[in-house]
What we know:
Elements: H1 5-52, E1 59-62, H2 67-73, E2 75-88, E3 91-105, E4 112-125, H3 126-136, H4 139-144, E5 149-155, E6 158-164, E7 169-180, E8 183-192, H5 196-199, E9 204-208, E10 217-224, E11 227-240
Antiparallel strand pairs: 1-2, 2-3, 3-4, 4-11, 5-6, 6-7, 7-8, 8-9, 10-11
Amino acid sequence: MSSYPGSQSAGKRRGLRLLIALVVLIAVLIAADFTAKAVAENVAATAFQKQGKLSHKPSVSIEGFPFLTQVARKSFSDVLVSDSNLKEGPLTITSVHAKATGVKINSFSFSSGTIAHLSGTLLIDFASLGNTLTTEVGPLGAVLHGAGLNLSAAGPDEVKASINLIVTTGSATWRVTKLSPRELNIQLIKSSGLPPSLLSSIQSVNVHIPKLPLGLTIKRVRVTPAGVVGTVSGSDVPFGS
């Protein structure tokens, strides 16, 4: 028995229409997922800004796909938070990057919740640290404002500077240590070519760290070719209202 060509063509057309409808539906769902994710990231950034009393919103990226299934659980495994140019007093934090895990939201608005754990790094580049030293070291700072202080790495916990005092040149090496979660100490360990009258102002300088997003605090610091890098962390951090 032969089949009917008309029936086969109609079946193929129905199958094609179903396939097209399925592709369109998937595309719409993906677009909705990404749109909802972008909105939630903006709301979360605002909540994080308020929590940390920051002058501007940090960047927030919610990891994982699909996003809407995480919303349904009110639980997110990974959220990336970053910020830059955080200033307090003479010091500017060049950048902060942290990963939040175990994020629980109180409602579908994403405006409040709790972060189980945060970990990441911050960077204070040498230009920022140099500017801080020139304003913090008394008589030498006044001279350096018109001369130059070029910092670079001298070891895992040391920075060195070539100092141009117009009439002479010299160098100094400081050791960078953490005094507290919000304060660093920069201690002179050796120098050469500098007038003795100026050495007293660069013996020891305490530098206050600007307030970081989501209650992050410094655990340890190290000196790298890019600047002073701090390991930061936090736990059980509430956000929003």
